[in-house]
Amino acid sequence: MTIIVVKGRSMNLKDLEFYSLAEAKAKFSKVMDETKKKNIVITKNGLPQAIIVEYDKFVSLMEFVDQIKDLYLVEAGDLSRVKEIEKFFLDFNEE
Questions:
Q1: Can you give the C-alpha Rg of the chain in angstroms?
Q2: Under CATH, to which class is 3-53 assigned?
Q3: Residue 17, SS3 per DSSP
Q4: Averaged pLDDT, groups of 10, the chain, 95 residues long
């Protein structure tokens, strides 16, 4: 098993498929089909720039993030911390 660390986060490479931007454009139908099996990382100049994830997986991830956010806000207790967390998720949704 190969693990990489990008910006302090570890990822299992077996769950990812990498394409350069040019290759992804040229093989877009194939890339979309592969999202059923793996998450796709699009690189630009050799650096990860975007992820393509199957739609149903994306929806599940966003629902999970909402649940975690709600649980975290309940546990935060401190109103100033709640505002900080809400701002984080607002900023996250805008990106």
A1: 17
A2: alpha beta
A3: strand
A4: 52 81 96 92 93 90 79 63 70 60
